[in-house]
Amino acid sequence: MKKFVSIALSLVLVLSCAAALAELTFSTGGTAGTYYAYGTVLAQYITANTDLAVTAIAGNGSAANIDLLDLGDAQLALVQNDVAGYAYNGIRFEQYEGAPVNSFTALAALYDETVQVITCNPDIKTVADLKGKNVSIGSAGSGTFFNAMDFLAAYDMTIDDIVPQYLSFGDSAESLKDGKIDAAFVVAGAPTPAVTDLATTKGAYLVALDDEHAAKLVEINPAYGKTVIPGGTYEGIDTDTVTVGVKATIIAGADVSEEDAYTIVSTIFENKDAITEAHAKGAELDLDYASVCGLPYHAGAAKYFAEKGFTVETAK
User: Fold this and answer.
1) Class for domain 114-246, per CATH?
2) Is 273:238 a contact under the CB 8 Å cutoff?
3) What DSSP string describes 71-95?
4) Does the structural domain 19-110+248-307 have CATH classification 3.40.190.10?
5) CATH 3.40.190.10: which residues of the chain?
6) Contact of 61 with 142, CB cutoff 8 Å
7) What share of the chain is helix, strand, coil (3-state, %, to 5)?
8) How far from 80 is each of 122, 250, 287, CA to CA, in Å?
9) Over the stretch 56-89, which tens digit does the pLDDT of each residue have?
10) What is the pTM of this model?
């Protein structure tokens, strides 16, 4: 009888621990981009230091990640805040106009993502020079597509003015190496692994914005902010490049509890130094920056920000 009771108690304890261990899928980006590398670091750190089991998976970018959360196939995701804003508010792009997707909330903005226009052709000096060219505008479902469309619009162009190719960052770099495409849009924290490899092995150029077109992009979407990619970020590109950036933001699906959201945000921001040791983007973690992304925040995230003296908007 005592043996039976002992076994039963052990089983109860095991089941209790299993129930307490929330398993969350964290969709990131392509394996050659910053989302995947940084998202994996965050997932591993949270899993190792909390009662949450977070698994990072490769994803197809912002729009695809929003769809995954909406379907319940992932609970966490990295997205660009501009694309998330289009989706949440149901504006600008046909797939969202009149059909907003608001089944997610923000946890925190993490770092700047720069819109990088990459080419191996020195004659392509402005976005206008892309007319008639083979141009990668990101993999299907990526936020890069939206940025490419915005960039073209700022120059009074549309997708019909280029020959669009839907390639991941890694495939874009390989296609540039092989001369299969003329340019590629890459939206990620700089330096981006795929671009670093391209610049090192073949040589590359970054296409810069002038002040007029940078301002036009901010008009199109205030989520854009003028930024500079410093010279020396990539081998052979020694001058500063003016462009715009958006915010890489963690979002959570409707089934992420307040307690779990609080644990995720607090674990990330209370352990900045340890995370930075594993990935350089950790150095950009900043509560002031993190508390503004143009999206409503999860109640659990809002609780942590309030403890640190920051008030954020929450979903109504």
Assistant:
1) alpha beta
2) no
3) HTS-SEEEEEHHHHHHHHHT-SSTT
4) yes
5) 19-110+248-307, 114-246
6) yes
7) 45, 20, 35
8) 29, 9, 18
9) 999 988 999 999 999 999 999 999 999 999 999 9
10) 0.84
